[in-house]
Structures are given as C-alpha cells and as structure tokens.
Amino acid sequence: MGEDARSVLVVEDDREIAGLVKLHLQDTGCRVDVAYDGASGLQKALGSPCSLVILDLMLPGIGGWSCAGV
User: What residue ranges define each of the domains in the chain, with the CATH number in brackets?
Assistant: First the structure.
C-alpha cells in the first residue's frame, strides 16, 4: 500500500458535520484533509491525490456535481 492509501478528503460546507466526519475517520487511522467549499475541495483533490473523497453535493459556489464532473 502506498503512503496515501488511507488518505481522505472531506468536502463539506457545514463545519460541524465536516468535523464529525474527520474525527471518526481519524479514529480509524485515516489521514484526513477538509475543504469547506467546492473550489478549495477541487484544488486540494487535484493538488494532493487521496484514496477517497467524501463530497457534499450541495456546496456554495462550485457544487458537488460540478466537482465530480457529472
């Protein structure tokens, strides 16, 4: 497994939800990065590959569907 095998990006504009998701993922041993809007989430995803992206679909600015390329 590579260094980023357990890295997760959480893109969620609700800071409480993002914090809870981050906390639970960290408890399982994942390295977690958080973005609070679609633009910064897209930038982080392109700049640093990760194993999993948890993406809110209803984000301010660039929405989750646009980030996902759908």
Answer: 7-68 (3.40.50.2300)
The pLDDT mean for the chain works out to: 88
Alpha helices in the chain (DSSP H): 15-27, 38-47, 64-68
Token couple for 42? 């897209």
The CA distance from 37 to 29, in Å, is 25
Is pTM beyond 0.70 here? Answer: yes
Contacts of 31 (CB under 8 A, 6+ apart): 4, 6, 7, 8
Burial of residue 27, with CB atoms counted within 10 A of its CB: 0-12 exposed, 13-18 middle, 19 or more buried:
exposed
